[in-house]
Amino acid sequence: MKTLALIFTAIVALEHIYILWMEMFAWETAGKKVFKSLPESLFTPTKGLAANQGLYNGFLAAGLIWSFFICDAYWAENIRIFFLSCVVVAGVYGALTATRKIFFVQALPAIIALLLTLLARY
């Protein structure tokens, strides 16, 4: 169970590294492919806003990656739970305010990782 929790946590971290890259460095190229519902004319003027969002996604990824390097298993698990919870909240908020797809792409993998992490405790 613990191995599965770590695998799902790594998947969530990698996903947020991708989001960081897309929003900070490829907003006007890859961003257009991901956010097809936005008019093309919005990508250039929103580049700075997207980069800011990407930075926050990078912080989430950094926290999850950090949890793999903490030697104390108790604290590593607590840090992992905290950052996975942050991803869940962000994903649910995004699903409620932007598009439901965000729930399935962002929140659901984090929910799975969080549940596996909590189940691995017992």
Give the SSE map.
Blueprint: H1 2-25, H2 30-34, H3 47-66, H4 73-97, H5 101-120
Helix pairs in contact: 1-3, 1-5, 3-4, 4-5
Give a quick rundown of the structure.
With 122 residues, the chain is an all-alpha fold.
Explain what you see:
The structure is a single chain. The chain has one domain (2-120). The chain has 5 helices and no strands. It is mainly α and 122 residues long. The protein has helices at 2-25, 30-34, 47-66, 73-97, 101-120. The longest helix has 25 residues, at 73-97. Helix 3 (47-66) runs antiparallel to helix 4 (73-97).
Annotation keywords:
122 residues; mainly alpha; 5 helices; 77% helix; elongated
Instruction: Tell me the Rg in angstroms.
Output: 15 Å
Percent in helix = over 70%
Query: How much of the sequence is in beta strands?
Result: under 5%
Low-pLDDT stretches are none
3D shape: elongated
Structure classification: mainly alpha
Q: In the residues, how many domains can be counted? A: 1
Distance between the termini: 10 Å
Mean pLDDT rating: 96
Note the main sheet.
none
- What is the H/E string? HHHHH
- Number of distinct helices: 5
Count all strands and give the number.
Answer: 0
